[in-house]
Amino acid sequence: MNSLLDARGIGKRFGGVQALKDVSLTIRAGEIYGLIGPNGAGKTTFFNVLTGLYAKDEGEVVFAGVPLKLGSPHEVARAGIARTFQNIRLFANMTALENVMVGRHLRTKVGVGGAVMRFSKAREEEAAIRRRAHELLRYVGVEHHAQKLAKNLAYGDQRRLEIARALATEPKLLALDEPAAGMNATETAELRTLIEGIRADGVTVLLIEHDVKLVMGLCDRVAVLDYGIKIAEDVPDVVKRDPQVVDAYLGAGHG
Length: 255
Ligand SMILES: Nc1ncnc2c1ncn2[C@@H]1O[C@H](COP(=O)(O)OP(=O)(O)OP(=O)(O)O)[C@@H](O)[C@H]1O
What we know:
The chain is α/β, with parallel strands linked by helices and 255 residues long. It contains 9 helices and 10 strands. Strands 6-7-8-3-9-10 form a 6-stranded mixed beta sheet, sandwiched between helices. Strand 9 and strand 10 form a beta hairpin. The chain starts with a strand and ends with a helix. The protein binds adenosine-5'-triphosphate. Adenosine-5'-triphosphate binds next to strand 2 and helix 1. It holds the Pfam family ABC_tran. GO terms for molecular function: ATP binding; ATP hydrolysis activity; L-isoleucine transmembrane transporter activity; L-phenylalanine transmembrane transporter activity; L-valine transmembrane transporter activity.
């Protein structure tokens, strides 16, 4: 399998805290890749560096064969990486449909300049965006809430809506930060089916998750961070039995 993302020697410090130290990992095209580790291990920091929210101190990322311009969320999104957040970040007072349409606008070709000249073209594009947004809401299973304000959706549906919004940018890589947090067993099972479907439709998935059962059941490969260092990277069956991983994470009541 080809590699989609190659992170090399990523380092990030916050004052005296070395949140990431020389982290290298490779995500292959078409896989579901899990990133796990104890609280404070650096998982979200890795996501934030990867998606341009934090400037890195060291390292580089090659994505789809091209060096990724780290430090710019817009460039990262354009390159084909979309994400969701640990703490849901929707536009609370916009409808579910509008939230997805906003994500979709990243792909819009008609700019502000010439908008009058190309008014009908813009209208066509807007209609296409709306259609696609409806499709995505249906895809994640919340189309019946299209006209509801995001803040009025149930928690699990908000998480699904965030995924729809991320997918609206047509990413090659979808990075999910603790998507199962706060979900009950039924919602988690449905989420698993959704993520498997997303992969089956050709999107590679990077997943941070504390639900070890979900990670081990769903992921093709898993990397483990501990104090900012990658201590393991392998298929779930090997990672599960790695003594260092058991010691740092799985032993402490997580498994
Ligand atoms: N913006 C920040 N400013 C200062 N320190 C930070 C910042 N973000 C993260 N850190 C520190 O970096 C380390 C790694 O944190 P991070 O949130 O990446 O861990 P995590 O593995 O995602 O944890 P969790 O599972 O609890 O979400 C921690 O020591 C944290 O306190």
